Each structure stands twice: as structure tokens, then as C-alpha cells.
Amino acid sequence: MARRATFIREVREQYPHVLLLDAGNALTTDQALTASTKGAVMIEGMNRLGYDAMTLGDQDFRWGPEVIQARMAEARFAVLSANVYAGGTNALFAQPYVIKEMAGHRIAIIGVTSKNLLAFLPPDNRVPVLVADPIEAVRRVMSDLAGKADVVIVCSNLGFQQDQQLAASVPGIAAIVGGNPGVLLPEPFREPTYGTILVQAGYQGEWIGQLILQINEAGKVVSHSGKTITLGADFADDPEIRAWLDSLAKP
Amino acid sequence: MRRTILRAIALLVAAAVLLSGCGGSAPTLAPSPTATQAPQAFDLVILHTNDVRGFTEPCG
Q: What range defines the domain where residue A149 resides?
């Protein structure tokens, strides 16, 4: 996380319009520090790194929906899912999308969660949740966003195969930032049907992806480039994040 | 005396309303997301992570 912070800071110094997104499964783990706080340390770290949004991942529900609700309340960024519902209601569990303005364009970020979520709920879960079809959910949100957004990004926890299905099924998505189970795409993949760009950046914080979309005045992506960066030892720790992590490690 | 004070207060309130430009304007609806500047060509940089799974430190 400290190396990631260094890279993020360098990119923010270089570019004025940066979005920092997470495509889910950030929270749950058997890592002692994260497990002992039921993911709170990850939310705090993501707050410090200045994330703009994260999508709820299926495995983020391992500690149950009540814990997720507590983590969502702690986040200073948008926690998204357009297809998870509080069971027995028509209410979405999280906000379906967020809109950011950049260079006079409205950038919508939609979150969708894998239907495998139900398999990860704890056995004693008392808060029912429903997971609707993610592709239909994106279609519905895209319809809601008509006239409200100029560029649409989907932050997807569906997995690379379903991301391709989504890209081939729904027009108007500029890019799908994917996750689950953690595919390492060295460079962006352009799904040919509507030209949607797919990216995914490995797992366990070992990598970070960088996608650059060149967008014209009309809000159209005219070119793109991207890469996945290994956060190896050649990245120095960000001193503030390092100090914070070290403080957590003290008994 | 009391009538003069009330008249002065009424005049002050009326002046404040006129100066603030609020007089007679219709209530506005909550704004839908609207870009506040003319759209420009730009580079949108998306930094992204996934499946971090609670790792605060690199494992390699």
C-alpha cells in the first residue's frame, strides 16, 4: 500500500485528471491486520490514498452484509453496486454509480458485483441480500444516465469472461475496470463489438493498472493506452503511508 | 415609537430581499449533474486495483 501510494502520487503530479478505482474484493482476507479489523484498515488505507470509488466484490461479503454496511459508512469514497439489493426490498444495498466532473465532462462510474456473492455469505448471516443480473443492471443504469453523463466507466467485479459479455452486450461503455478473481492483463484489451476497453490488474496489491483514455470535446474516446505496473522494490514507500502502517503494527 | 421600529424592520427585510435577488424567484429543483465548464479534450487517467484481499504489504 505504501508503494502504491508513491506511484499514485507520481501520476497525480503528472496528470491533472486522475480517477483511482478498485474493482472489488479489497477487504476480506486472512491477513492478520485486516482480519482483526474486519476490513476497516483497508478502508482507512483507501481513504488515505484518495480512492474515488470501489465496487463491492463478492468476497467482500465474507463477514456479512452488516459488516459491509459499517465499512461503507467509514469510506470517504463511493462504494458502488448496481445489482445487489437488500433482501425483501427494492432498495439497492449501495449506490449504483457516481458521477465525477473532469474537464467539463461528466464521468459516470457504475459498479456491478458478481452473483457468486451468495456463496460467500457467512453461514449465520441474518441480513438477506439479492444479486440481480449484472448486465441488465448496467443496461438499466445506462438508461437512467441518459443525458446525465458524457463518459461511462464500469467498475466490475464480474470477472474477465463476463466483462467481455458485458462489453459485447451494452453499447456506450468507454471502459470496464475489472476484477475477480484477479487476472493480470499486461495491457488493455479492446472488445471489438462496441470498442469497449477492458483492463484488470492482478491481485493482492502486487500490481496497479494505469489506463489513459484520450477523450475529445464530444466525450468520445479517440485513443487509449495502458499498462499494468508491478509495485516492486524499485518503488519507494510513501513516508506517510509507511508511518501509518508501522503505527498499526505496534502492539 | 413601536410602529416606527416595526416599519424600520419591515423596510430592512424588504431591502435585504431585493439586494439578495430572492424576491419573486421560483423555487429551483435540485440540480441534476451538470458540467460547470465547456467540455475540453483531455486525458482521463484511470488507476485501478482489484482483488487486493486485505494485503497492506506486498507478499513478494
A: 2-249
pLDDT higher than threshold 60 for residue B16: no
Option in A17, A26, A182 nearest B42 (CB): A17
Comparing CB atoms, the residue among A34, A103, A231 nearest residue B56 is A34
Q: Which one of A152, A203, A234 would you mutate to disrupt binding with B, by most B Cβ within 10 Å of its Cβ? A: A203
Q: List the single residue in A148, A199, A231 with the smallest CB-CB distance to B33.
A: A148
Residues contacting B29, CB < 8 A, separation 6+:
none
Per-residue pLDDT at A121: 93
Q: What percent of chain A has pLDDT over 90?
A: 92
Which ipTM was obtained for this model?
0.97
Residue type, A128: P
A58: amino acid identity, one letter? D
Count of domains forming chain A = 1
Q: Give pLDDT tens digits for A131-167.
A: 999 999 999 999 999 999 999 999 999 999 999 999 9
Beta pairing, strands B42-49 & A207-215 = antiparallel
In angstroms, what CA-CA distances link B34 with A107, A215, A218, A219?
Answer: 11, 18, 15, 14
pLDDT score for A88: 79
Amino acid identity for residue A88 in this structure: G
The CATH number of the domain holding residue A85 is 3.60.21.10
Taking residue B25's Cβ as centre, other Cβ atoms within 10 Å add up to 8
- As given in the structure block, the three cell numbers for residue A81 are 453496486
User: Which regions in chain A score pLDDT beneath 50?
Assistant: none
Closest approach of A73 to chain B, Cα-based (Å) = 18
CB contact under 8 A, A21 and B34: no
Substitution target in B37, B42, B44, B55 with the highest count of A β-carbons within 10 Å is B44
Asked if A31's CB is within 8 angstroms of B53's CB, the reply is: yes
pLDDT given for residue B2 in this prediction: 57
